Amino acid sequence: MTAIRRFYGRHPLHLLALLAGFALVGYVVYSIEPRTLWNTDVWWQSILVWFFGAIIAHDLLLFPLYALADRSLSAGLAAMTARRRVRRPKIAPLNYLRVPMLGSGLLLLLFFPGIIEQGRATYLAATGQTQQPFLGRWLLVTAVLFGVSAVTYAVRSAIAAKRSHGPPAPTTAES
């Protein structure tokens, strides 16, 4: 077991999970037949083009932007606490900003065509409704995500402050 871990670098179950995932993908591609992944009429509408485009767009463009935003957020929080010369909070606020930002960003990515009202006529014909409420609803969900995160952070901070100012722990020397 240690020889496998030393050679592979991870636990053997990690390798087994990867192989199972690749086998599943291979089975799916085999089942749907690879020729269905390519549109011979309009090449840019092919599943393969969009798949590789998403990989390139995410890994080469978006991920560095995520990392830059996260580093900027971390540096900004560090600069704010250093400037005020206060002690570091017991509960780090970073994840309470990351989670609602991630949720809001994913919702924006998912509903962006509706938010900018792209395909207005098609959407109206298919549903009988307009895309007008998309922007307001996205803003509302974003506000709720940040609000819930702020309340959760406040509660966790209050609990941590109460614990640190509670009665002193008994010492073992009294026994």
From TrEMBL:
Keywords: Membrane, Transmembrane, Transmembrane helix
Segments crossing the lipid bilayer: 12-30, 42-68, 94-116, 136-155
Name by which UniProt lists this protein: Lipoprotein
Organism this protein belongs to: Nocardia callitridis
Lineage of producing organism: Bacteria, Bacillati, Actinomycetota, Actinomycetes, Mycobacteriales
